[in-house]
Amino acid sequence: MSQCHATEGDLMASIDEALTARLDKSVFPLKQRWGTPEFRWHTAYPGDVPAGIEFEALRLEKLLCLAANRFPERIALRYFGANWTYQKLKKRVQRVAANLHERGISPGDRVLVVLPNSPEFVVAFFALHWIGAQVVPASPLLSVKDLVELADTAGVKAVFGLDLRIAPILELLEQREIPLLVVCSLSTHLPPYMRWPYQIKVKLSKRRKSDEQTTVLKFKNLYHRRAGVIEEPLLSDTELPAILQPTGGTTGTPKIAVLTHTNLHANVAQLHVWCGLEPGRETMLAVLPFFHVFGATVALTSAVAGGATLLLQARFDPKRVFRVMQKWKPSVAPMVPFMIASLCEEMKNRKRNIQGLQFVFSGASPLESSLKEEFQERTGATIFEGYGLSEASPVTHTNPPDSTAIAGSIGVPLPNTEAKVVDKETGLVELPVGEVGELAIRGPQVMQGYLKNEEETSMVLRDGWLHTGDMAKMNEDGYFTLVDRKKDMIISGGLNVFPTEVEQILETHPGVRECAVVGMPDRLYGDRVVAFVVAEEDEEVNPALLRMYCNKRMASYKVPQSIEFCDDLPKNFLGKLRRFELRKRAA
């Protein structure tokens, strides 16, 4: 009997025994863990959410296997002309897995996936796990420099790239020897009126030929080549890495968080218990990018684990997303505040509200209370405001869905998660209620560590606790509130921007003597990227010129939206930049 089918009977028995109980609302079996230590935040939990849960950790591809066995005819994903059932998705994953394995991709290999949300991303994601490979996700907007650094750190054996953004991938292959390139096209899913413009853009993007040492395959051919299928996943160890998630440190230096199958499945289980999603009945708006763990866990993996239908969106276009939501009426939508604000504006302009939405997960940056109230009033949906970070798969905290939620708070720790506030100097002293210190977290969703970076790992992981670098405080009821970011990272439109990275590029311009980059609070974007520039004498330089310079050297979301010139930058007596003064000036 196959591995997938061997556990199906036990799984069905577990779910059928009490279908209406919250702990059974999952494609995988869950039960309450008795004897869990009581923390002050447990009193804030909804009545049917336990303080702790027990579950058998599964690999991500096994979650797909179980969903396909239980809901074979359920639509797994919709993307323009693609409407695939779970049975079809599983078969395509098995076929692509066999072809990749035949091409030399083996258990433990690392593969760079530089794709937007699409059927190809979903298939590649699960096919790579099916053969025991590790996914290194990356934004298609990354520069060649970013891709080279990522490929070097991870040691990738293959790359998946989009034909529309193939030029940076080909430049990567000119600089690094990578045996396999798989080129993906979205044109096959598009309606005719969109296909021709897409193909023209693709032709314009192809400027270089790939290195002869690299085998180049079209993704669609992985469906048709005669390598057969791999019926069962090759590995069963859940403690092996699943996603090598690029992240950044206090200086913007790229690091890679090693997230195991256990980490990711644990976070999915925690979210399922918290929300009580109905297996096989939900429709998930998948607009958060899967190349970030927020989208990969809360949208992609969580949907598959619950047999939900994914409404794939390659990018966030408010008008298109509004139309999709009107047509397919998703019940669940993970988003960032920028998206929520944009959809509010769209509803105002159209004088029509979104119908059918039940739950919204909001994270990445604070959500204004007025915006939250407006969106909930217009849609009737409940917004869960929470907190997470790449190193924790990512969700650790969320607000309850009822009136006990506290505006401006990140909420309470999820089941099986502990949190405390410690002194920022040593991280050893737990601070009393109400005092500000560094937020530390412990739970099954916390990463193994940073790839090939023991020094950074030892700084953030101490005695099982993840030291987040964020300053917070806890109230008497166990609700946590972020006070400031210990790191100077900017979150613009839900994407991370590291000031030092932008500053280093700006200062390569001959007209810039020095500069500083800060985030300015913005209702739409969360933060706007603002640069303060001290120009060189006798050099002609202006904001438009500098923005053009930046556009050629960094991802578009990192380019400063505002550039202000000044005579000097505020510094203390040691010459250290007083960034907080610039934030005040920007505001």
Tell me what the structure shows:
This protein has a domain at 490-586: ANL, C-terminal domain (GMP Synthetase, Chain A, domain 3), CATH 3.30.300. Helices cover 32% and strands 24% of the residues. The chain has 18 helices and 29 strands. The strands form eight sheets. It has a five-stranded parallel beta sheet, with helices on one face. A five-stranded mixed beta sheet has the order 14-15-16-17-18. Strands 19, 20, 22, 23 and 24 form a five-stranded antiparallel beta sheet that branches. A hairpin with a 5-residue loop joins strand 23 (465-474) and strand 24. Helix 13 crosses helix 14 (369-379). The longest helix is centred in the N-terminal third of the chain and has 17 residues, at 86-102. The termini are far apart.
Helix/strand class: alpha/beta
CATH fold-type name of the domain at 490-586: GMP Synthetase, Chain A, domain 3
- Whole-angstrom Rg: 24 Å
Spatial sequence of strands, sheet with the most strands = 6-5-7-8-9
Could you report the average pLDDT, rounded to the nearest whole number? 88
The CATH architecture term of the domain at 490-586 is: 2-Layer Sandwich
Full CATH superfamily name of the domain at 490-586: ANL, C-terminal domain
Main sheet properties:
5 strands, parallel
The number of distinct β-strands equals: 29
Distance between the termini: 64 Å
Unreliable stretches covering 5 or more consecutive residues: 1-20
What is the share of helical residues?
25-40%
Oligomeric grouping of the chains: single chain
Task: Please write the CATH class name of the domain at 490-586.
Answer: Alpha Beta
Shape: globular
Approximately what portion of the residues adopt beta-strand conformation? 15-25%
Helical region count?
Answer: 18
